[in-house]
Write a structure and sequence with these properties.
Number of helices: 7
Number of strands: 8
Shape: globular
Distance between the termini: 37 Å
Helix content: 25-40%
Structural class: alpha+beta
Strand content: 15-25%
Largest sheet: 4 strands, mixed
């Protein structure tokens, strides 16, 4: 069961119980072999969710902490990544990226606005990491109206070796060196690869995101669009 749950998590699938029925929330497609595993283990998964309360939501709202100009504490993982980032060879070693294939006729300006809206919504995407006057590393959220970010658009349709060009860019961008002090700690590009096909690529420093976050970002951008 543990290995199955790990595989489900790695595929950015959210498990939830509704009136005793197992519901799956996900972006894209679930591998066929994973679908078969989930079906065969459905009853065990339901029992597990009920026993651990993972499918239940709290009735108490989660209130945001007060806005602070003095910054916020780092988590243990963030502090570890900060220390590692101080070594030259570690600057680009902890990036995570994702590519989403999009089919259809997309309005580029509206897609860019959707990306910016998601960045406005999620403060962590506007967060940087700096030392304060006491030499303590803190995380600071840049106000949305002061955050300097724009998604790049590359029109490659009609170009030879489109897939190779996209893959080459993605491979290079994975090793981008982000500036943790000034940000932004993400990069995004929309490639047009044919008249009705696109690739949405985005790359983030692991200090502000994890594997689950990648799926959340794609979902939110497409829902906003």
């Amino acid at each position: 069961m543990r290995e199955l749950l790990k595989e489900i998590r790695e595929n950015n699938i959210l498990l939830k119980l509704e009136s005793g029925n197992l519901k799956l929330k996900f972006n894209g497609e679930i591998p066929n072999d994973l679908v078969l595993k989930i079906r065969s283990q459905k009853e065990y998964i339901i029992d597990y969710l009920e026993s651990t309360n993972l499918s239940k939501t709290t009735e108490s709202p989660i209130n945001p902490i007060p806005i602070s100009e003095e910054g916020y504490n780092l988590s243990y993982s963030q502090n570890r990544l900060w220390v590692l980032s101080q070594f030259e060879d570690g600057l680009a070693a902890y990036n995570i990226s994702n590519q989403v294939n999009l089919d259809g006729d997309y309005n580029i300006d509206l897609f860019k606005k959707a990306v910016n809206k998601v960045i406005e919504r999620h403060e962590i995407l506007r967060t940087v990491f700096r030392e304060n006057d006491q030499g303590e590393v803190r995380q600071f959220v840049i106000p949305a109206n002061e955050f300097n970010f724009s998604i790049e658009f590359k029109d490659l349709h009609g170009t030879n070796n489109v897939d190779e060009l996209v893959n080459r860019f993605v491979d290079d961008d994975k090793y981008r060196k982000f500036d943790l002090t000034n940000g932004p700690l993400l990069n995004a590009v929309l490639f047009q690869v044919s008249n009705d096909a696109y690739v949405f690529h985005y790359n983030l420093h692991h200090i502000i995101a994890d594997g689950w976050s990648l799926g959340v970002m794609a979902r939110d951008v497409l829902m906003c669009y």
